[in-house]
Amino acid sequence: MAEIILTIALEVAKCLAPPAYRQISYLRESKYTSNLQNLNTEVVKLKSERVNTEHQVDEAKRKGEEIEENVENWLATANSVIKEADKFTEDEATANKRCFKGLCPNLKTRPRLSKEAERQKEAVVKVLDARPVNSISYSIIPEDTLLMPNKDFEAFESRTSILNEIIDALKNPNVNMLLIYGMGGIGKTTLAKEVARKAESDKLFDQVVFSEVSESRDVRKLQGEIADKLGLKFDEESESGRARRLYDRLKKEKRILVILDNIWENLDLLDVGIPHGDDHMGCKVLFTARSEEVLSGEMESRKNFPVGFLKEDEAWSLFTKMAGDYVEGNELKEVARDVAKECAGLPVSIVTVARALRNKSIREWKDALEQLRRPSSSNFKDVQPAAFKAIELSYNKLGRDDLKNIFLLIGYTAIASIEDLLMCGMGLGLFQGVNKIEVARNRVHTLVRTLKASCMLLDHISQKKELFSMHDVVRDVAISIASTERNVFTATNEQVDGCREWSDGSAIKHCTSIVLHDINTNLLPKVLECPQLELLFISDDPWEYSRVTIPDNFFKSMIQVRVVNLTDMDLRSLPSSLGLLSNLRTLSLCWCYLPDLSVVGGLKKLEILCLRDSDIKKLPVEVGELTWLKLLDLRDCEDLEVIPPNILSKLSRLEELYIGPKSFDKWEVEVEGVKNASLEELKHLPNLTSLELRARDVSTLPRGLLLEKLERYSIRIGDDEESNGSWCREFSLDLNDKICLKDSLIVQLQRIEDLELRGLQEQDVDYIRNELVKVGSSHLKRLRMRGLDPALSSAESEV
Ligand SMILES: *[C@@H]1O[C@H](CO)[C@@H](O)[C@H](O)[C@H]1NC(C)=O
Ligand SMILES: *[C@@H]1O[C@H](CO)[C@@H](O)[C@H](O)[C@H]1NC(C)=O
Ligand SMILES: *[C@@H]1O[C@H](CO)[C@@H](O)[C@H](O)[C@H]1NC(C)=O
Ligand SMILES: *[C@@H]1O[C@H](CO)[C@@H](O)[C@H](O)[C@H]1NC(C)=O
Ligand SMILES: *[C@@H]1O[C@H](CO)[C@@H](O)[C@H](O)[C@H]1NC(C)=O
């Protein structure tokens, strides 16, 4: 009560003061208030600018880039200016509070404070003006995920001793080629990765490059991988041109180690563009291979390192690590030790068997031992019987049919991504009781995770969640099992060429799956007589000039087929017999040359059509006849110019539609009176759950678009930026002052996670904020607004 009285008293006193004083003090007071307000406005701008820059910095760092020094400096200055201003306003606020309690600051100090506010405002504006406008980061060599701590490396004596020998050899100026060799699954790759890591951490080289060669011996891919790691971009198309560029670039590195993992035959380093020997003593090359004989030629500058079996105690220690300590318990110990012995010191066997038996009862352990001791059911080339039996056992222990099916499918098709596995598995009907694609996708994620946990699948080199890979020994076993249990036939060009089974068709008749990789000769029969065939994969060799044609009647006698995947083929004349495949569920024609696709109209049961990266120019009207279609993938169809009206709207069962990120964007574009499809058509797709699309013009977006029903979407309007791929609900819009925001667009964005708006007018900003608050944008994780007005040019916030 006393306080209130005091305040009133003060007010009264003011009123009684002479008018002049009141006048001046009023002026001072209002100047002070406006200076303070100006300061606050600028600080808000600077803060959002700082957040924006910080985000850019974070993103650049994620990409492995270095931040420009001026940007770091700017951020430091911005921080200190903001801190000072915040302190000022905070002091001001406490002073005001005290003032409310009747303890006003001396009015005489107001001019000083006012000036201080103005000074600070100017400082803030100066920092704002100096904000980094050019690129904030520069690319350095991206950090190699391989060189991060290597979780697979066990510091066993048998391994560390080789590791140390290799490191010594790398220090020896007279050695410039090294070979680690040993049987599949013995741990060569793991060891080579550890060499890379150690060479890098001990700074033995300025650069360490690790590249997987594998059986396909794809020189171009190899060149690309090495170049990526050096930050080199090729302008050349030809292999030899690229080799020369790479060669020049590598010569500029004083000390570089190139690791080529898993070579299968003698590789001419000069073909790839790797200088070695007297050409460039600073460039050392380390190979891994299954046999010492893959490398021919002079020996004096080369050193070979055999990798052998793990010693018994090492094997046991790895075994208990994978199976869990409980195997050391009295009950299990003996049988577990015997099981471990059967794995013969091969890491790949130990790991898969131990994982398969983890937490299992003693009965199952005994049964496993019995299985491992039985003579091998296969004498598969290149695979040790011990490894074969171990992996076969792990396969049997997968138990569930869906896991086994998926494991074999990944093995013999060499599919490496969740999306492709989904399309293929869905087509084969592998997910029982699942009709919805979104549900199937979750199932696929779970299955892949389970297979990784049992060490039957590995994380992909890139560490991307949607990719995976398989150890090559495990793959060999998977292919072998698939060929005996499921009548699966897989081959590369060389293997098919001159293969009797293939040419006289006797064994092929019973096949359920055929996978032909990297075909470059015309070896397809006129008619493939395969009445039981369910899956057919053919991929053209991307690096050889080839003109593999598919005979017109090729598909005539495979009437049960459910999945057809032709990759990288010249389908100038798409065989008419394709249209007869009335059971076909999944058709994938990625990277194909596809002038005319009208034959697909006959595929009445087709559920999944994937034309990713194909050169299709016009979506044929016959696609409108595919009324069972659930998924249409037109990603990266850069030449796609025409989607005629009333095709998409007929696909009433469509659940997923992908038209991006570099693909058709000409909705409603009209040329000579013929108009392209309209996005309004999407309203006729009641079951759509995933949508990716681009448009040039926001006015083509239908009002009341069904966004709220979509589980996942990425919609980008008016920009060419790529979404980073892991989108869930993302919307990006260039307003370019053409459109009035107030036509209920935003209201639809209920569950949006990532919203980017460009070309905003100042008055729109508050509108959008309010609108977002109104619809309850609780899912919003990221909001980016870029305005026309430079002051507003960028505000970004993490919500
Ligand atoms: C193994 O069994 C133990 C106890 O029964 C349990 O806590 C653990 O989660 C199980 N581990 C696996 C991988 O199933
Ligand atoms: C099609 O085959 C290619 C090459 O074998 C493979 O990479 C891709 O994953 C397959 N796609 C589908 C959808 O099966
Ligand atoms: C949409 O999905 C529901 C539930 O799966 C199904 O009953 C319905 O037939 C589908 N609608 C269309 C047009 O296919
Ligand atoms: C669709 O757009 C393309 C490219 O702008 C144009 O050539 C074509 O005539 C348009 N419409 C149709 C139905 O072809
Ligand atoms: C993609 O962007 C999202 C948010 O914008 C971010 O959280 C995520 O880490 C990014 N992913 C990659 C692979 O850059």
From TrEMBL:
Residues 174-313 form the AAA+ ATPase domain. Residues 29-77 form a coiled coil. Keywords: ATP-binding, Coiled coil, Nucleotide-binding, Plant defense. GO terms for biological process: defense response. Pfam families: NB-ARC (PF00931). GO terms for molecular function: ADP binding; ATP binding. The keyword Ligase does not apply. It comes from the Eukaryota. SUPFAM superfamilies: L domain-like, P-loop containing nucleoside triphosphate hydrolases. InterPro entries: AAA+_ATPase (IPR003593), Apaf_helical (IPR042197), LRR_dom_sf (IPR032675), NB-ARC (IPR002182), P-loop_NTPase (IPR027417), Plant_NBS-LRR (IPR050905). Belongs to the disease resistance NB-LRR family. This is AAA+ ATPase domain-containing protein. It comes from Citrus clementina.
